[in-house]
Amino acid sequence: MDELEILKKDWKKKENSFNQITEKEIYGMLHKRSSSIVKWIFIISVCEFLLWIAASLLMRNNEKVNKFYDYDKFHVMTILEFINYGILIYFIIKFYKNYRKINTIQPIKSLIKNVLDTRKTVQTYIKIIILYTIITTIIMFFVQFNFDPEILKIYHEVERKGNETMFIILSLILTLIFIGIFALFIWLFYKLIYGILLKRLYNNYEELKKLEV
């Protein structure tokens, strides 16, 4: 049993004259926990940003990745990479602002609003990352199928035999399956990272609503 539950049990046992003091203690505990959760959301987002940069630098030393960038004549992947950084930086700033707001002593109503805003921000972030991942994967397949010399060689061979329609259909099916599995993996990854924190934040929101009544 955590400290908040102990305080709540004590609150019920005490006389009405002491309720107001205990209510303030419970609010202080909820405020402190909410602030801590949002701080961790901010820290994780910064770590994620640094991880993406490290992964990008490491991939640049990979032969297959370098080949992919070589036949990406329109530098689509480089543009998408910068868009990814832009998304991460934007949400890091949002998470930091949310932390600053929640970290400030404020009325219960304002704290409830800020907790809700933080949850919505994280949920929006996860949705945008998943959407970005799907779009990026589709573009990567498009670039590879249109510019990769090895893929083009296979396609021309299939075309010569008159099986290009079947080749395209199978390629699309395999692509969609890969995108679905990859998107599911990303969703589970972010649910694991942020899901626990969001659940705790929601629990705090429920407790704050009780105090507001």
From TrEMBL:
Keywords: Membrane, Transmembrane, Transmembrane helix
TM ranges: 37-59, 74-93, 129-147, 167-190
Protein name per its UniProtKB record: Beta-carotene 15,15'-monooxygenase
Upper taxonomic lineage: Bacteria, Pseudomonadati, Bacteroidota, Flavobacteriia, Flavobacteriales
